[in-house]
Design brief:
The strands form 5 sheets. Strands 1, 2, 3, 4, 5, 6 and 17 form a 7-stranded mixed β-sheet that branches. Helix content is 33%, strand content 22%. It has 16 helices and 23 strands. The protein binds flavin-adenine dinucleotide and ligand NA7. Ligand NA7 binds next to α8 and β12.
């Protein structure tokens, strides 16, 4: 207690300019208190927080070029080949739709309007490079040693570091955090997949348009990529092996894909790729099988984008030899609630950790909390429940909590109440846009206080809408509290506060009037 008070008082002094003595725990035994392997969302957050709390920290980040040879800078998946370039390209697509709407609102736009990939790509890539630079500066400012080297474990305290030229060194650390993320998978059983296909690691760094594209895989990465490609005017097809958006609420998933189909994305449902061949023209000829009819089909594309999942980067870390246990099926690191692996001083956060959402904010939050625990500053654990997310498809889909299916599975169909509404965003009216897939669903416990179990929203700015309601979720809000919340008019989010038709009633859920 006394220690707490004195540290607390020291922190108070710091706000008046006094310097807090660094709590360097290495005491000469190790080079660092903490070495983080992987400078992505989780690793950067963890290393910066630990350094801020007085630990001596190094972070290793090394990008193995993609199969196609694409490389990028510091910051990991989200910054370079994930959230950031994806959302910016989604924005490029939304602007295309906005331009169509604009005419209805009186804007005179000379026809034909066309999109130039090279301009968009250069702007996006320059922005990403600025983020790479920003991360380097931040590490320097926080006194985190940045090593642009590939790390692997020699023993539980020793890390072998190798740079791009093959130069080697070792560093030692009291604690090690693994945060090496994941990379796209390739269906290596499909001839031509590796030679002729690309992955999301390449798409965002292409200098020239991918042209007519086949996207194989229908999870959110596949749908988002196909969505923005369609939106900027390219011919895009999604090949779906089974269902789209596995793990998400399937009614919402259908609305997302129905909208995409209406918007121009083609779907090949129930199909699997068989081979990819390069024709003398340079076009890629794809042969695939319809799993229902067993018939084979062929079509040519300019690009084939594999979005068939991601593998954790755990293979080259020498984990097994050091005793870090992995899940045999997924290759992910098995972690306890405090992110600790089977080796007590080694932790894993972000996409490589088993049963964690593959999302940037969870990796960042987990990294910060872990740093605080390692520095002895807090004992707070990461709460992985009720993490909100949004799929940035042409019609965005945001959700937090349980899908309807999962709520039924956990509570029983008779023990949940599902409120729903089909609504029309005001901005769609003048623009004469079809709003058939703009839908809201709130899944609640049926009895007691009707605690909200899941909230689902398709429509404009779904991420912004869902983020706000995620706070309610964190506070365990009920249906009654949702209805008592005063809406902001006229918005799409306010429809959530007005929701009153249950699925059970069978009544028409179309919102009419204000
Ligand atoms: P990463 O960010 O992947 O960082 C790992 C780093 O470690 C990389 O830089 C890697 O090169 C490096 N590394 C690997 N091995 C070594 C080694 N041996 N030595 C040194 N360095 C190494 N999440 C969202 O929240 N919102 C989104 O909209 C979103 N969109 C996405 C879109 C796409 C196309 C993809 C692919 C992902 C998206 N994600 C999104 C997921 C998000 O990017 C990841 O969940 C997040 O980046 C995981 O962070 P991480 O710290 O675990 O790993
Ligand atoms: P996911 O979520 O693993 O989904 C992979 C998709 O690819 C899914 O639709 C699969 O269909 C499909 N798939 C997988 N293998 C094949 C083959 N061989 N042929 C055809 N289709 C296939 O991966 P994502 O890359 O979209 O996302 C992974 C994470 O990265 C995500 O959580 C983000 O956080 C970032 P299935 O449903 O198995 O039939």
């Amino acid at each position: 207690m006394a220690a707490f008070y004195s540290r607390h008082r020291l922190k108070h002094w710091c706000s008046f300019g006094f310097q807090l003595p660094k709590r360097n725990l290495t005491a000469g035994k190790f080079d660092y208190d903490l070495v983080v392997i992987g400078g992505g969302s989780g690793g950067l957050a963890c290393s910066k927080e630990a350094a801020q709390l007085g630990q001596k920290v190094a972070v290793l980040d090394y990008v193995e070029p993609s199969v196609r040879g694409t490389k990028w800078g510091l910051g990991g998946t989200c910054v370079n080949v994930g959230c950031i370039p994806k959302k910016l390209m989604h924005q490029a697509a939304l602007l295309g739709s906005a331009m169509k709407d604009a005419k209805k609102y009186g804007w005179q736009i000379p026809e034909p309007v066309s999109h130039d990939w090279a301009t968009m790509a250069e702007a996006v890539q320059n922005y990403v490079r600025s983020l790479n630079w920003g991360h380097r500066v931040q590490l320097q400012d926080r006194k985190v040693k940045y090593l642009n080297m590939k790390g692997s474990l020699v023993d539980e305290h020793t890390i072998r570091c190798v740079n791009a030229r093959g130069k080697e060194m070792t560093v030692t650390a009291r604690n090690v955090v693994l945060a090496t993320g994941g990379r796209p998978k390739y269906p290596t059983h499909v001839p031509g997949a590796l030679e002729f296909g690309i992955s999301s690691d390449d798409l965002f760094w292409l200098k020239e348009s991918p042209g007519k594209t086949l996207v194989v895989g229908a999870s959110y990465v596949g749908l988002e990529c196909a969505g923005f490609l369609t939106g900027i005017g390219l011919d895009a097809t999604v090949m779906v092996r089974s269902i789209a958006l596995r793990g998400f609420d399937q009614q919402m998933s259908r609305l997302v894909t129905e909208y995409m189909e209406a918007y121009g994305t083609r779907f090949s449902w129930g199909c699997v790729p068989k081979k990819v061949e390069k024709l003398p023209s340079g076009l890629l000829q794809v042969t695939w099988t319809d799993t229902q009819s067993r018939q084979e089909h062929q079509e040519t594309f300019d690009s084939v984008l594999w979005a068939v999942g991601r593998s954790p980067e755990t293979k080259t870390l020498n984990l097994k030899q050091v005793g870090v246990k992995l899940n045999g099926d997924t290759g992910k690191v098995i972690v306890a609630d405090d992110e600790r692996t089977s080796v007590p001083n080694i932790y894993a956060i972000g996409d490589i950790a088993q049963s964690r959402p593959e999302l940037t904010p969870t990796a960042i939050h987990a990294g910060r909390l872990l740093a605080r625990r390692l520095a002895g500053d807090s004992s707070k654990l990461m709460d992985y429940d009720n993490v909100p997310t949004t799929v940035f498809t042409p019609l965005e889909y945001g959700c937090v909590g349980l899908s309807e299916e999962e709520a039924e599975r956990r509570y029983g169909k008779d023990n949940i109440e599902v409120y729903h509404a089909f609504y029309k965003p005001l901005e769609f009216t003048v623009a004469e846009r079809d709003a058939s897939q703009c839908y809201i669903k709130v899944v609640c416990e049926r009895d007691g206080g009707q605690r909200v179990l899941g909230l689902h929203f398709t429509g404009p700015n779904a991420g912004e809408v869902t983020q706000g309601f995620a706070l309610g979720f964190q506070c365990g809000f009920t249906y009654a509290q949702l209805r008592e919340t005063v809406g902001i008019h006229p918005t799409c989010a306010e429809e959530l506060t007005k929701i009153n038709i249950t699925k059970r009633s069978g009544l028409d859920a179309t919102v009419t009037g204000c």
